[in-house]
């Protein structure tokens, strides 16, 4: 197998020196195990956290360890009755071309039901994150205004569309003209804004004449500074991600904005609740599978994938993800 391992803990944006390519023989299979050939590797913002030793909700990847990640794989050898050669499965085998895994840690996918790549995006972890965070914490009501950034990504695009299914108005924020166009034309957001525009402040005000009832927090940074000034009384903020900060090495410049923000939390009776999607697995997986499969099938939730060819290109693609060079759910096509 060819692996990409964590060579060093990055400071700021990960560099090529933080990753090491290693080719290794895999051990023979033991009972209950399968040999997997990677088809797709999912690249996700949380992986930046795993590269860091800072305390978080999950253990970091050790230096010298294989970079983690969800994959879609084909079973090429099996010593388990659960999986047959030729099965396509969802696994967590990381940045490598082949892996040995416990068959119980794989989930069989039905390639006739949906493209298998969707198990890493709209029908997988990112789609579930949008569903759980928006419906459990955001609780959009008909006629309310929901704002989300990183809105062409797998989480944000699903948030905006689910909000509309629930009768709310969705305002999407993305970086650059092409993404902004896709928000209304492809994903059907009611309004789309460019956070890099010099008129973002005015554009946001014009787009939210009745204020904001749900801010699905995907990014933090300057977008959050602006959006949280337009929140309505009793607004909800599911805190899902802060990707604007993931490469940061110091606090943002300028005055401390926390006191002003906390004053709004108090006077507007805001609800802020962070979450890690896995906490909702036990309660919401079934309804998510049922609802999202139907929404995708009926064209109510559209999705976009950005597929990079070849494991060798994973580090560069991952760097791009953290600064917005991806356009849709970022996947690496590792094998056919
Ligand atoms: P995306 O594919 O949307 O990629 C991240 C996007 O963030 C970029 O494409 C870029 O889009 C945007 N971005 C980067 N920097 C900034 C910035 N400074 N200001 C504004 N936008 C920025 O990723 P996902 O959909 O996979 O993830 C979205 C968020 O959800 C992330 O924060 C992630 O960590 C979080 N997440 C949380 C989970 C949880 O359990 N809590 C689970 C899964 C994801 P653009 O070019 O449009 O600016």
UniProtKB/TrEMBL annotation:
Coiled coil (UniProt feature): none
SMART domains: PKS_ER (SM00829)
Domain Enoyl reductase (ER) span(s) in chain numbering: 15-332
Gene3D superfamilies according to UniProt: Medium-chain alcohol dehydrogenases, catalytic domain, NAD(P)-binding Rossmann-like Domain
Natural source organism: Nocardioides kongjuensis
InterPro entries, per the entry: ADH-like_C (IPR013149), ADH_N_2 (IPR041694), ER (IPR020843), GroES-like_sf (IPR011032), MDR_fam (IPR045010), NAD(P)-bd_dom_sf (IPR036291)
Name by which UniProt lists this protein: NADPH-dependent curcumin reductase CurA
One Pfam family it belongs to: ADH_N_2
Superkingdom of the organism of origin: Bacteria
GO molecular function: oxidoreductase activity, acting on the CH-CH group of donors, NAD or NADP as acceptor
Keywords from the UniProt entry: Oxidoreductase
């Amino acid at each position: 197998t060819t692996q990409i391992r964590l060579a060093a803990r990055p400071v700021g944006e990960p560099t090529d020196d933080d990753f090491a390519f290693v080719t290794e023989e895999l051990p023979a299979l033991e009972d209950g195990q399968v040999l997997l050939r990677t088809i797709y590797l999912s690249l996700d913002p949380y992986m930046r956290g795993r590269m860091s030793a800072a305390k978080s909700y999950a253990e970091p990847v050790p230096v010298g360890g294989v970079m983690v990640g969800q994959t879609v794989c084909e079973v090429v050898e099996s010593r388990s009755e659960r999986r047959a050669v030729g099965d396509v499965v969802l696994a967590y085998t990381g940045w490598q071309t082949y892996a040995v895994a416990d068959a119980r840690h794989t989930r069989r996918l039905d390639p006739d039901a949906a493209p298998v790549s969707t198990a890493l995006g709209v029908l997988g972890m990112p789609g579930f994150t949008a569903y759980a965070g928006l419906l459990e914490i955001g609780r959009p009501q008909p006629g309310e205004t929901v704002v989300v950034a990183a809105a062409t990504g797998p989480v944000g695009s699903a948030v905006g569309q689910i909000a509309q299914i629930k009768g709310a108005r969705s305002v999407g924020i993305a970086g650059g003209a092409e993404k902004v166009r896709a928000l209304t034309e492809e994903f059907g957001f009611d309004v789309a804004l460019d956070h890099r525009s010099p008129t973002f402040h005015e554009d946001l005000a014009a787009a939210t004449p009745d204020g904001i009832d749900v801010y699905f927090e995907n990014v933090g940074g300057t977008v959050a500074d602006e959006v949280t000034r337009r929140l309505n009384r009793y607004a909800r903020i599911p805190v899902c991600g802060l990707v604007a900060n993931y490469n940061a090495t110091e606090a943002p410049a300028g005055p401390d904005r926390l006191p002003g923000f906390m004053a709004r939390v108090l006077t507007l009776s805001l609800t802020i609740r962070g979450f890690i999607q896995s906490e909702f697995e036990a309660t919401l997986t079934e309804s998510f599978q049922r609802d999202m499969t139907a929404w995708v099938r009926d064209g109510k939730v559209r999705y976009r994938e950005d597929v990079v060819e070849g494991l060798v290109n994973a580090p560069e693609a991952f760097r791009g993800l953290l600064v917005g060079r991806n356009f849709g759910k970022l996947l690496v096509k590792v094998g056919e």
